[in-house]
Amino acid sequence: MGNGWHEWPLVLFTVLGQTVVGALLVCAAGWASMKENVAARQRIVRMMFFLWIAMGIGFFASMMHLGSPLRALNSLNRVGQSGLSNEIAAGSVFFAVGGMGWLASIAGKLPLIMTKLWLGVSSLLGVIFIAMMSLVYQIETVPTWHTGLTTLHFFLTAFLCGPLFGAILLRAAKVNINGTMMSSISLLALLATVGMIIFQGVSLAAIHSSVQQAAALVPDYAGLQVIRIVLLTVGFACWLCPLMRRKLPLFAGMLAGFVLVACGELIGRTLFYGLHMTVGLTVAG
């Protein structure tokens, strides 16, 4: 799998960013459902600390991709014109609004209406962040990325990893909301992911340049995708099986399930970067 893992900073950045957005949506829904339970809402906000830690790790990884943290500011030079600049700007605004709002809420400086506004705006900024992230890879000269599957892949990661991460944070906050609904969303995302993998696997055979076959870029594509699906399935089983028996999933089981699901998506993202190819001749391979 060497063809994609060299982009590990981007693998971490994109998967963590999408996971955080998905989990934020779940936490915001959990917060809204608590209505008059002020103590539960405060516990949820405290647990959201881990969202911003994960986002911070993601941004740190993205700076590793730039080679030097000093280049980070240069990546913002062409906001509105460059997909990369738009992505970094959208992610920075999402991180800043989410993180600073969290700090204000923890400090007790946000009244109820402002907390609602903060969660709503942060969730919207997160969705925009994922959209901007996917547009970076809509490059006409990279036929394996220039497809709607890229956008679908990125949003599906948010619905695969996010709900389980959010459910873990809600459990840690001692808040019980409708886990069946959240797990159903992730199950639908899993089915969509399987369909996307099959479609992409078939499509790769028809993509080629004068010197490259897309199907040959990652020789272990099929095997690794099978491993990815198994990890996702087993991971969700740790969460879903107790719910199907009308029992509360164990925290340790949910945590183990999330690790498996996250590993599955990391493999999927590594394969995505491994499928990079350009049309036309490649000089010095």
Automatic annotation (TrEMBL):
Natural source organism: Pseudocitrobacter corydidari
Protein name, per record: Anaerobic dimethyl sulfoxide reductase chain C
Keywords of this entry: Membrane, Transmembrane, Transmembrane helix
InterPro entries documented for this protein: DmsC
Domain of life, per lineage: Bacteria
Classification via PANTHER family: ANAEROBIC DIMETHYL SULFOXIDE REDUCTASE CHAIN YNFH
TM segment ranges: 12-32, 44-68, 88-105, 117-139, 151-173, 185-209, 221-241, 248-267
Pfam family, one: DmsC
